[in-house]
Amino acid sequence: MDDRISNDEPDPVPEFYIPATTSLAELEPRTLKHGDSFAVFDHYGDVLRSDRSPQGLFHRDTRYLSRLEVRIGGKRPLLLSSTVDDENVLMSVDLTNPDVFDGRQIDLPRDSIHLLRSKFLWMGHSYERFAFRNFDTKAHEMTVEIHFGADFADLFEARGQRRAKRGRSHQPVVSAGRVVLAYDGLDNETRVTTVRFDPEPEFLTGTAARFRVALAPGQRSVVLMAVTCAAQPAHAFSGERYFFRLRQARRAVRAAKLRTASATTANALLNEALERAQADLAMLMTDTDEGPYPYAGIPWFSTMFGRDAIITAHMMLWADPTVARGVLMALAARQATAEDPLRDAEPGKILHETRGGEMANLREVPFGLYYGSVDSTPLFVMLAGAYFERTFDMPTIRALWPHIEAAVTWIDTYGDRDGDGFVEYGRRTEEGLANQGWKDSHDSIFHADGTLAQAPIALCEVQGYVYAAKRAAARLARAMDMGPRADALDDQAAELAFAFDQAFWCDDIGTYALALDGEKRPCRVRSSNAGHALFSGIADPDKAAQVAATLMSGDSFSGWGIRTIPQGESRYNPMSYHNGSIWPHDNGLIALGLARYGLKEPVLRLFGGLFDASPYMELRRLPELFCGFSRRAGKGPTLYPVACAPQAWASATLFALLQASLGIAFDPAGREIRFDEPRLPSFLDAVVLRGLSLGPACADVSFCRHGAQVAVSVLKRTGNLRIITTI
């Protein structure tokens, strides 16, 4: 799509648009994930909607199960309750039978049979247990049917894209207790779904299994089902194997949580939100060859994204630095080494996203390995510097240094298209993303009159990321005894900060411009992007308070959080994706920026707004975004219809808010953990951080609020470690 669309003409459908034909907020789906697989079910544990819907079992961007439906006596059971456990491992659904008639007689009265469905994902499999129990005083025999199917739709098809041609589906192959469904893709890859049952059904076809379940009063009966996203598994399936795999899944999640420092507070609601956030991050974490990597979000972004993972790792850095190392090493391994216009790839550039589905393999979408983000590359260098400051891990930095140098070279060459010292973007082909910052909607970068900015575009926040990247690279170079290189990088950062202030500061709107367009005209629009200038440290200290005041004004701060675009701007729309909505991660980064400049009061207001929003969210889970309507008494925030939940950087936001409030910082060389001007919001009287590590040393620290002051106490300490508090 061309950026230069007339405002008088209706906009064509933007590229890779996600149609909102059904609200995810209305469906309140149940989600599970492990590795490269995720599943979206309805409250019953079924998959009934597949057209333009995220429901189903997906593996590597392909839907391996597009239908799953349970019937008792030909009818859908009655729903009692449905939830995913606190560890995000097991989905449990309590059901009971409806009235089942035989002619005019009730053959099976409702509420006689309890059905507990328990399901989880593990290593490319979906395991499910159907446990029936007769609570009636009479014996009952009933027919239970399980309907299933696989359309092998690419994720982008499920999102709504139409394809001119698809591959060929095989006829189902049915054998004893097993059905094999297969599809030959146009990419010459055969994808296979294997469905297995134990015990063997009374009747089995390529689309349904039927069981006769006879239960005496109080008697139980169990049916097991496994769906495999691959060729037929060699091992048999049984109840013993079901529980063995479930134990493996639980242990893996607990091991990931043990790696992370935990926070317990005096506020029960905040504890629930923190526990869910930590469980979501553990679920989204995927083991790669290079280490743990947080996939971006479910359902549409359950894959490796560069920007999302870097920001998630940055916000989690104080609690679990191993995530940052995994992200850095994985992205370094996939750093672009050559030009490829279709993929927006250039030497030294860091990945935007990767996909493994049929459409990506055929380049029907450019996202197999796609590099169309302008900010992933400087953010990569920023994270490397922050990781070193947190860990003092010189072997990892030495391994990364060639990739850091390549990233800096990209910033100075391909990134700075016209040599003016600013990094700009513009897609290389019409198939790429039109906007390549984190606000990548087609209409998210505009002038005060609403006119869309023309590429190449220099975003406000990207210049800040470049500044911070140069500072980080300088510190790393100096640590490796490369003094002249470090001095040159510091000089470049200083020059950029001066030029940024001259070109982007707008006195009339009290903040930095959203961007510079292709003619170097500033987009004089107030936006949350300016808050990222605080996060990166590029903002002039004399202007930081004014930027904060603009961000926290009534036009921008809704009461729940800072809007992406405030009221009064030409394209403000609180229901839009990027032009007036509220993104938790955006607020988390702004909070870190406010804390950097010593502005703790607005940090506490942000913390309070997002905390107040969390009880209104399903499972206390902060979503990818929500609408930017102003807060009203007695009414919760307005949900966004197709927001991902869980979303990694939204889940990590609470970690960022804690860091910003408590001023958590590390000095590995001095063996110190510091708390700079720790503060707590009014809803929070006490916090305990456990497992706060610095190398092999570790500490548990408590914080108690007394009015505006916070008392810090060391509860436990192991190893050579000092705790320093500044007031």
TrEMBL record:
Residues 374-607 form the Mannosylglycerate hydrolase MGH1-like glycoside hydrolase domain. It comes from the Bacteria. Pfam families: GDE_N_bis, MGH1-like_GH. This is Amylo-alpha-1,6-glucosidase. Residues 32-221 form the Putative glycogen debranching enzyme N-terminal domain.
